[in-house]
Amino acid sequence: MVVVLRDITRLWELDRLKSEFVMTASHELRTPLTSIEMSVSLLQERAGERLEPSEQELLHVAQEEIVRLKHLVNELLDLTKIESGKIEMQVTDISASALLESAAEPFRAQAAERETELLLELGDDVPNVRCDPNKITWVITNLVGNALRYTKPGGHVWLSAERAGHWVHLYVRDDGAGIPYEKQAAIFGKFVQVEESGAPGGAGLGLAIAKEIVRAHRGHIWVESEPGKGSLIIIALPA
After folding, report:
1. pLDDT tier for residue 90 given thresholds of 50, 70 and 90
2. Which residues fall within 8 angstroms of residue 57, CB to CB, at 6 or more apart?
């Protein structure tokens, strides 16, 4: 047997400095982005009719990019707060069915528009989950949004839950494009995207935030997927 001990204090310090830099930079970007957004909105409102169609299109693109950047900044701030342990938790007991239903409801119209069936399979013997309902609902919502994005029209997305000893497993399953095997080990990392699907995505921070939120609940999250045959994301939370 060989035991190797390594002092990683320096690595932890570098990681802390990196997180603090990202938080500071993201915070400082919020004010100028808000100012730019207000300026572009005023231009669209007051001068939009006097502009050429190509100029109006440029303003529209600028508005969309500002929204995308603000969303990215907010995700970075959320991630650094969670990683630094500054996330506030309002833990309570809630039924698994209530979590899944509240996460699925905002996607009913989108699923119908994409001709994708959104199904809830709720058992009767599933115990309550010990969690912060708002944050876990956000996690499930992010997973459902990803599932719809990578599922073709005519496909299905299933939400379900079951007891697993002292845990409750929440499932988000789809029959979409699936995740390439070489990406599955890193899918919950920062800035990781499944580009092979051709579906438009964000900055690749959603699953990283989801993992940190689940870890803050002392839970686990992992993926099971076969390319071309869909994906299954499992969230394990204390019962």
Report:
1. confident
2. none
Nearest to 118 by CA among 169, 176, 164: 176
Nearest to 161 by CA among 213, 209, 125: 125
Q: How many Å apart are CA 153 and CA 112, to the nearest integer?
A: 9
pLDDT tens track for 108-117 = 888 888 899 9
Q: Which residues, 6 or more positions from 144, have their beta carbon under 8 angstroms from its beta carbon? A: 103, 104, 107, 118, 157, 159, 172
Query: pTM, whole model, 2 decimals?
Result: 0.72
Report d(CA 83, CA 189) in Å as an integer: 13
> Which candidate, 122, 128, 147, places its Cα nearest to that of 210?
147
d(CA 29, CA 69): 9
Angle at Cα 184 formed by Cα 179 and Cα 186, nearest 5°?
A: 130
Beta strands 156-164; 117-122: pairing state:
parallel
* Residue 128 DSSP one-character state: P
Contact 107, 119 (CB under 8 A): no
CA 167 – CA 138 distance, rounded (Å): 20
Q: At what angle do helices 133-149 and 206-216 cross, to 10 degrees?
A: 150
Q: pLDDT-derived band of residue 87, with 50, 70 and 90 as boundaries?
A: confident
Assign 201 a pLDDT band (cuts: 50, 70, 90): low
DSSP letter at 196 equals: G
Contact assessment for residue 196 and residue 127, using Cβ atoms and an 8 Å cutoff:
no
Report which secondary-structure segment, H or E, holds 174.
Answer: strand 167-174
